[in-house]
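Hey, can you fold this one?
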Amino acid sequence: MEANARWVLPTALAPLAWGANYHVTHAYLPADRPLWGAALRALPAGLLLLALARRRPHGAWWWRSALLGLLNTAVFFVLLYLASQLLPTSAAATVMAASPLTMLLTAWALAGRRPPPAHLAGAVVGLAGVALTLLGTGEGIGWTGLTASAAAMLVSSVGYVLAVRWREGADPLAATSWQLTAGGLMLLPLAAAAEGAPPPMDTPTLLAFGYVTLIATALAFTCWFAGLRHLPAGTVGLLGLLNPLAGVLLGTALDGDAFGARQGAGLALVAAGILLGRPRGRAAEPGPGPGPGPAATGTAATGTAVAGAAAGARLPAGRGA
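Sure. Predicted structure:
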């Protein structure tokens, strides 16, 4: 128990870093360079993790890494960047907390894994919390940003289902490094063709990209997967609550986002939904198996689903046959 407790703080760093990433992207990175923003987040982090993992793809993992890199990194990071730029920080963080419901329905449709009633109820409660938080918020909440968030959740959910189906044959850190590297390499020529030269790097922008790449991606993924190996999946899932909480608090404190009784009640419903859908029984035990990769973790707000995949995939999102 004491050994497990020592891993709580390092694991908590991941959702905190992901929650802060919404603010850093919104406040310090160029709004008109989503392709470069995603590429500069993915590729350096992927190469760094590849150097740590010291494993190259093998066999089917070459094309699997390319496909998962497209979904979990290239498309997802671009959409997440757009959502972070187009929505207030607190709204972007709260909207992404609806990811568990999207994963439930996607896994049900694609993998035939019907979710237990409690998990489905928890996801619906969380979605109600998101709706309550955004209802009547007014200025700053646009359909373009909400559409980018919804598309990011859908893409990451499809990537999650595929990654859980293919989780055998690669450890989480290696698989994540392959996907980040593949996605970053795909984005480079697109960014150069569509957006021209990389964005100018003054000191704040350089520091922001350093945070996004090194802290919110490379370090956060490493801490998250270490936590999955040493902590019960239920504990890791609860730590995932720090993601939307960090985003809302930073948005309120640093960006001046509105936060009143309705937003507080909505965030409480999001937390209640995640608690209701947390893994139980065998799925709550530590699991060394590979997790689903950057998509599910990168959305952050899907900690429960990711933990369940690593602990045996007995979670609402299910696993492929």
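Residues 2-311 form one domain. Let me know if you want another pass with a different chain boundary.
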